[in-house]
TrEMBL record:
Keyword Membrane: yes
Protein's name in the database: NNP family nitrate/nitrite transporter-like MFS transporter
CDD domains: MFS_NRT2_like
A single BP term in Gene Ontology: nitrate assimilation
Bilayer topology term: Multi-pass membrane protein
Subcellular location: Membrane
UniProt keywords, alphabetically: Membrane, Nitrate assimilation, Transmembrane, Transmembrane helix
GO MF, one annotated term: nitrate transmembrane transporter activity
Similarity-based family: Belongs to the major facilitator superfamily. Nitrate/nitrite porter (TC 2.A.1.8) family.
Organism: Muricoccus pecuniae
Organism domain of life: Bacteria
GO CC, any one term: membrane
Gene3D superfamilies per UniProt: MFS general substrate transporter like domains
Lineage per the UniProt record: Bacteria, Pseudomonadati, Pseudomonadota, Alphaproteobacteria, Acetobacterales
Keyword flag Calcium: no
Length: 403
């Protein structure tokens, strides 16, 4: 709980600015998804191009997380975040002023918006470095709650596009981003306990660990499923059930809200019953949900219900993965956060793009959903294969919680 000791221990203005920066950044990161129906109609994009359009910001955000993570070590989180926000603001304002008139231009904008998705690697260390180990959970929980910004994109972007045109949404989005940027410059402050920069061999050392690859794959499925669906569901509901862009955005927002809300719940559940057990359940639930929706349910509300269940499982899975990572990689948590976060974004790119290509090549989204469900099953099997070794080695010695 946020109590007096917590408020005295850290730097609340920095924590607030980190949350706002993260929240608004995630809002614009997935903005092309809720606008996909209107953009695809005006630019005459096919299903594969539409899927790639919403997937590119996710991939760019994934790759830029590692860049931002290194920059945080070298020049500090505040300056890194300020540069990132300026890049995103410039991209939005240029797109609004000159317009987006081709598929190539919308992909270029998607790359710029990827910088907003990379805010994960900045906002979390900016906030967490102010707090002692026993308060890291609540500090990261508050800063990390910024992933709820994806809900705002689904709620407001289609409605604003219907009233003002989708290109003007880019200019409108720059207004709250600009306000948050000013707040960030005034309130955010780097911690005096800044650790020394890591060398390149230190960044690469974790690649020798097989467990690092397992964690990257597990997050590829959980966060990849979450952000991939958050980017794709607007055009899915429009195409599959004929919902208008605004209503499709509301349906998407409900799914994204469910997945965002329960991330801390997943971590708490993992603390209670063990991360491996919790994660196993969530992979099973997510796989079943994706298989069910792949067959094309007859009513949109039925699909909404199943997607909400799937997003709940994926959102809780995100929290469960990061309940386990610090126990295994306690001294390499910064590097592992960047790597795991990067592969999660790559998973989102894969899901969003595969749904578009599935529709383009087969006339149905089924293959895309079934392939990702198969990855969830593979993750479950992998988790089953390593759990005994984990529990008898680092899990038994960590002393940080149940696995």
């Amino acid at each position: 709980m946020v109590n007096r000791d917590f408020l005295k221990a850290g730097h609340p203005p920095t924590l607030l600015s980190a949350f706002l920066y993260f929240d608004l950044s995630f809002m614009v990161w997935v903005m092309l998804g809720p606008l996909a129906v209107q953009i695809a109609r005006d630019l005459q994009l096919d299903a594969a191009q539409r899927g790639l359009m919403v997937a590119v910001p996710v991939l760019a955000g994934a790759l830029l997380r590692m860049v931002n993570g290194i920059a945080v070590d070298r020049i500090g989180p505040k300056l890194t975040g300020a540069i990132g926000q300026l890049v995103v603001l410039a991209g939005l304002l240029i797109s609004w002023w000159f317009g987006v008139h081709s598929f190539a231009q919308v992909l270029l904008l998607g790359i710029v918006l990827g910088q907003a998705g990379a805010s994960f690697a900045v906002a979390l260390p900016l906030a967490s470095r102010w707090y002692p180990p026993e308060m890291q959970g609540i500090a990261l929980g508050i800063a990390g709650a910024g992933n709820s910004g994806t809900v705002f994109a689904s709620l407001f972007a289609p409605t604003l596009a219907a009233h003002f045109g989708w290109s003007n949404v880019f200019g409108l989005a720059a207004i709250p981003l600009g306000i948050v940027f000013v707040i960030y410059l005034i309130l955010a402050k780097d911690s005096p306990d800044r650790p020394p920069p890591k060398s390149l061999p230190e960044y690469l050392r974790v690649f020798r660990e097989g467990d690092a690859w397992w964690f990257m794959f597990f997050y590829f499925v959980t966060f990849g499923g979450f952000v991939g669906l958050a980017s794709s569901l607007s055009f899915y509901f429009n195409d599959q059930y004929g919902l208008d862009p605004v209503l499709a955005g509301y349906f998407t927002a409900a799914c994204v809200f469910a997945g965002s809300l329960v991330r801390p719940v997943g971590g708490a559940l993992a603390d209670r019953v063990g991360g491996i057990w919790a994660l196993s359940i969530m992979y099973g639930v997510a796989a079943v949900a994706l298989i069910v929706v792949s067959f094309g349910l007859p009513q949109a509300w039925m699909a909404l219900l199943v997607f909400v269940i799937g997003m709940l499982a994926l959102g809780m899975g995100n929290g469960s993965v990061f309940q386990l990572v610090p126990q295994r990689f306690r001294s390499e948590i910064g590097v592992m956060t960047g790597l795991v976060g990067m592969t999660g974004g790559i998973g989102g790119f894969y899901l969003a793009s595969s749904l578009g290509y599935s529709k383009q090549l087969t006339g149905s989204y089924q293959a895309g959903f079934l392939l990702f469900a198969a990855l969830a099953v593979l993750a479950l099997l992998g988790l089953t294969a390593v759990k005994s070794r984990w529990r008898t080695t680092w899990g038994a010695a960590s002393g940080l919680g149940r696995i």
